[in-house]
Design goal:
Blueprint lengths: L1 E5 L7 E2 L2 E2 L2 E8 L2 E6 L3 E6 L4 E7 L6 E6 L3 E2 L2 E2 L5 E6 L3 E6 L4 E6 L5 E6 L5 E6 L3 E6 L4 E7 L7 E3 L5 E6 L2 E6 L7 E4 L5 E6 L5 E6 L4 E5 L4 E4 L9 E4 L5 E6 L2 E6 L4 E5 L6 E6 L5 E6 L4 E7 L2 E4 L2 E7 L2 E6 L4 E6 L4 E7 L2 E6 L2 E5 L6 E4 L5 E6 L3 E6 L3 E5 L4 E3 L16 E3 L3 E5 L6 E6 L12 E2 L4 E6 L9 E6 L4 E5 L10 E4 L2 E6 L6 E5 L2 E5 L4 H4 L8 E5 L8 E6 L2 E5 L5 E5 L3 H10 L3 H11 L2 H13 L3 H10 L3 H11 L4 H11 L3 H10 L3 H10 L3 H11 L3 H14 L7 H9 L4 H31 L1
Antiparallel strand pairs: 1-32, 2-3, 4-5, 5-6, 6-7, 8-11, 9-10, 11-12, 12-13, 14-15, 15-16, 16-17, 18-19, 19-20, 20-21, 22-23, 23-24, 24-25, 26-27, 27-28, 28-29, 30-31, 31-32, 33-34, 34-35, 35-36, 37-38, 38-39, 39-40, 41-42, 42-43, 43-44, 45-46, 46-47, 47-48, 49-50, 50-51, 51-52, 53-54, 54-55, ...
InterPro entries: Beta-prop_IFT80_2nd (IPR056456), TPR_IFT80_172_dom (IPR056157), WD40/YVTN_repeat-like_dom_sf (IPR015943), WD40_repeat_dom_sf (IPR036322), WD40_rpt (IPR001680)
Organism: Cyclopterus lumpus (Lumpsucker)
Protein name: Intraflagellar transport 80 homolog (Chlamydomonas)
Length: 780
């Protein structure tokens, strides 16, 4: 990926034959830019017609410094009012100016120059920063609301937090995050060795950029922790700006323009003849960049040479409207031409999805794309599943089939589609998962086909803020699982559909920095601490928690550099992006995916044959978990025996010996740790003694007595086993309930045993009768 830059032969900002520095630029649409200069002129640049026109010549005492247009969309809804910008100047005023150059209002704001002015994301407030060290908040109409901060040094740059509830500003060599609530605590830290000149804070990824006179740019999280620090440039960093989707950012310096990944490493370095770049602005679709230059020029750049890979295909964006498709198996090359410039693209599951400013193209073969129109041109995110594609734009989320049919459009209160990213949204064939931006502990789950909330409409709530979500891609919707990483970097797994029960959220890993599901089997891989870990069968945590560590494949991360990030896991190939931007590939054995296929199609003999051939303990452990989940006891017994789990083999034998199906099912649930479900199954089948016995075996004496009293049977049995238990440990009874009932109940072991034998005989008879009835039905 790189920037393709263009400059006019002659600069447009000239005063009395002298080149005047351009101080600020701002986009109104994806093809229309406004620039301001010390020649007092506001120029309009039309990129479609390559025309430049004078909007207005400001009065001689107005020297513009900063320009910011009022946000086009608020909470996904387009603004209907007249487009207006805030223009700050050296005379201590800011000017609310329309598109046609009319100054609606000029406000005395600061003593000395107003160095920065920024609208918040919903357009309800404006912040200004001055040479006098003050930061002030103003209403939309330019009325002073409050002075947020006052310091002894000039505030060179300011930015709003993602929710417009915090402010980031410069203070000499330091950065300060100040909440708008007066009682909330500020965060302040030393950021650079020289004065900090420019900051930006992205609303999608919540990451901060800073650049300073120490000739470095740095990347920070919202707590002030350093994520990346560049090496020293030749000149101070005078400008920087996030792309709207938060995936890349641009850095400007003297005769320098740099395109960087969100993690900090540099994609490309351009050396245009610009002088210092004082201001950078991205178009709303994130495809074009404009810079205000010290030599009177406005530099334009657009992003080209983006790459997408899937299996044997590599696709490259060669020009704004042209893509090259290369099949690495036979070196065949196809060229795809588009009517408008490409904004976003995604390649997965045998389909290439490309969005332009007006249309969406879906390619299955390279000759005949399926084309449909888009409501809103600025698509910020494309997610693909096997059967569907999800498009996210400023107005909402839309699920389409690969035939171009709109399937659903999920909506929820407080939805802000403009801040959704790939970490906070996940798509499978039947489910859409969205991390709620207003409460990051909450994950909203929607049915892909209807767009309605799943189940009873209750979202999934975790105990901590969630950083990343990912849905598995295979299997029926009833077994859909979601993996999530929380802010402690712990990895959890839970079911999406839990049928009225409280969801069981199980921890399966810690210190996990990145994860991805396989596209063809429910296998999960992740970067765990400094290791590359693959969970061959993560659902084992629901059937046998102790089995999970035996189903892992762990590879030492020494071959990866600092902080690798998983991009995709397709087939047996995992693609990782290293901290320095280089791509590395890691392969995973094909056997686990094959085992998943055999399990799904109930080919247990083939599964056993595969495990015997591979001679891998982790495969046997996976097979044991899969067989137990599918209640295939014979296979499970053989798999557990192969990994030396003899107590479990004995318990499976015990389950097989149970006289009725209900008892077997209850003990299988017990095997998986689902005690309440096992008890409910037995009680529903009228097997009261067996339900009481479950509590006795787990030494849950109070529950055993409660059941016996409730059903008026086996009270003496519970008291007898309780007495035996206390006698074994040489203890006396202290529980008041047991003391109370022990007085009036006689414990006779012979009578108790006879009663138990009678109950078991009844159960066997009932099971035999049921078996006879089913065989008669089958014959008919």
């Amino acid at each position: 990926m790189r920037l393709k830059t263009s400059l006019l032969q002659e600069p447009k900002h000239i005063l009395f034959m002298t080149l005047e520095l351009v101080s600020c630029v701002g986009w109104t649409t994806a093809d229309e830019l406004y620039s301001c200069s010390e020649d007092h002129q506001i120029l309009k640049w039309n990129l479609l017609t390559s025309e430049t026109s004078l909007v207005v010549k400001l009065s001689e005492d107005i020297y513009p410094i900063d320009l910011h247009w009022f946000p086009k969309t608020v909470g996904g809804k387009k603004q209907n009012q007249t487009e207006i910008c805030v223009l700050t100047s050296t005379d201590g005023k800011f000017h609310l100016t329309t598109k046609i150059g009319r100054v609606e209002k000029s406000v005395e704001a600061h003593k000395g120059a107003v160095l920065a002015g920024r609208w918040n994301y919903d357009g309800t407030a404006l912040i200004t920063a001055g040479e006098d060290g003050q930061i002030k908040i103003w209403s939309k109409s330019g009325m002073l609301r409050s002075t947020l901060a006052s310091q002894g040094s000039p505030v060179y740059s300011v930015a709003w937090g993602p929710d417009s509830d915090r402010i980031l500003y410069t203070s000499g060599r330091q950065l300060v995050i100040k909440p708008l609530q007066p009682s909330a605590k500020s965060i302040q830290w030393k950021a650079h060795d020289g004065i900090v000149l420019k900051v930006d804070w992205n609303s999608v990824n919540d990451v901060i950029l800073s650049g300073g006179e120490d000739c470095k740019y740095k990347v920070w999280d919202s707590f002030g922790r350093l994520l990346y620090s560049s090496s020293s440039h030749d000149y101070p960093v005078t400008s920087l700006s996030w792309a709207p989707d938060g995936e890349v950012f641009a850095v400007g310096s003297f005769n320098t323009l740099r395109l960087c990944d969100k993690t900090g490493w540099s994609y490309a370095l351009e050396k245009p003849n610009t002088g210092s770049v004082f201001s950078l602005a991205w178009s709303a679709d994130g495809t074009q960049l404009a810079g205000a230059c010290g030599n009177g020029h406005v530099v334009f750049a657009h992003v080209v040479e983006q790459h997408w890979e899937w299996k044997n295909f590599v696709i490259t964006l060669t020009k704004r409207r042209t893509m090259q498709v290369r099949n690495v198996m036979n070196d065949a090359v196809d060229v795809l031409e588009f009517r408008d410039r490409v904004i976003k693209a995604s390649l997965a599951y045998g389909h290439l999805v490309v969005t332009t400013s007006l249309q969406c193209y879906v390619y299955k073969n390279w000759n005949t794309p399926l084309i449909f129109d888009l409501k809103e041109g600025t698509v910020s995110l494309i997610l693909q599943a096997e059967k569907h594609v999800l498009l996210v734009d400023g107005a909402g989320l839309y699920t389409f089939s690969y035939e171009g049919r709109l399937i659903s459009s999920p909506k929820f209160p407080g939805m802000r589609a403009d801040v959704l990213n790939a970490q906070g949204v996940s798509l499978s064939n039947d489910t859409i998962a969205i991390r709620d931006k207003s409460d990051e502990k909450v994950i909203l789950l929607f049915d892909t086909l209807t767009g309605k909330a799943i189940g009873d409409g209750k979202p999934l709530t975790h105990k901590l803020e969630v950083v990343e979500v990912a849905l598995d891609q295979c299997g029926p919707s009833t077994e859909r699982k979601i993996a999530l990483i929380d802010k402690n970097r712990d990895l959890y797994l839970t079911s999406v559909r839990h049928l009225g029960r409280e969801p069981k959220i199980c921890k399966i890993g810690s210190m996990v920095h990145s994860m991805a599901w396989n596209d063809g089997a429910n296998i999960l891989c992740g970067i765990q601490d400094n290791q590359f870990t693959v969970w061959y069968y993560p659902s084992a945590v629901f059937t046998d928690k102790e089995l999970l560590p035996k189903t892992l494949y762990i590879k030492d991360g020494s071959e990866f550099s600092r902080a690798p990030h998983i991009l995709s896991y397709v087939g047996t190939k995992v693609t990782l992006r290293q901290g320095d931007g280089s791509l590395v590939y890691s392969s995973v054995a094909p056997y686990p995916a094959l085992l998943h296929e055999y399990s799904t199609t109930a080919r247990w003999e083939d599964a056993l044959r595969l495990c015997r051939f591979a001679k891998d303990q982790s495969l046997w452990a996976c097979l044991a978990g899969m067989a137990m989940a599918n209640r295939e006891l014979t296979t499970a017994k053989m798999a557990y025996a192969a990994i030396g789990e003899l107590p479990r083999v004995q318990y499976i034998n015990f389950i097989k010996e149970q006289p009725s199906k209900e008892s077997s099912l209850a003990h299988m649930l017990m095997f998986s740790g689902q005690v309440q479900e096992a008890e409910a199954t037995l009680l529903q089948a009228g097997l009261i003694y067996q339900a009481i016995r479950v509590s006795i075996d787990l030494f849950n004496w109070e529950r055993a007595l409660e059941l016996a009293l409730k059903h008026k049977t086996h009270v003496d049995t519970v008291l007898a086993y309780r007495g035996k238990f206390l006698q074994k440990f040489g203890r006396k009874e202290t529980n008041k309930s047991f003391l109370q009932y022990a007085e009036g109940v006689e414990v006779d072991w012979e009578k108790i045993q006879a009663k138990i034998d009678m109950e078991l005989a009844k159960e066997r008879e009932k099971a035999a009768n049921a078996s006879v009835r089913s065989s008669l039905v089958t014959r008919r």
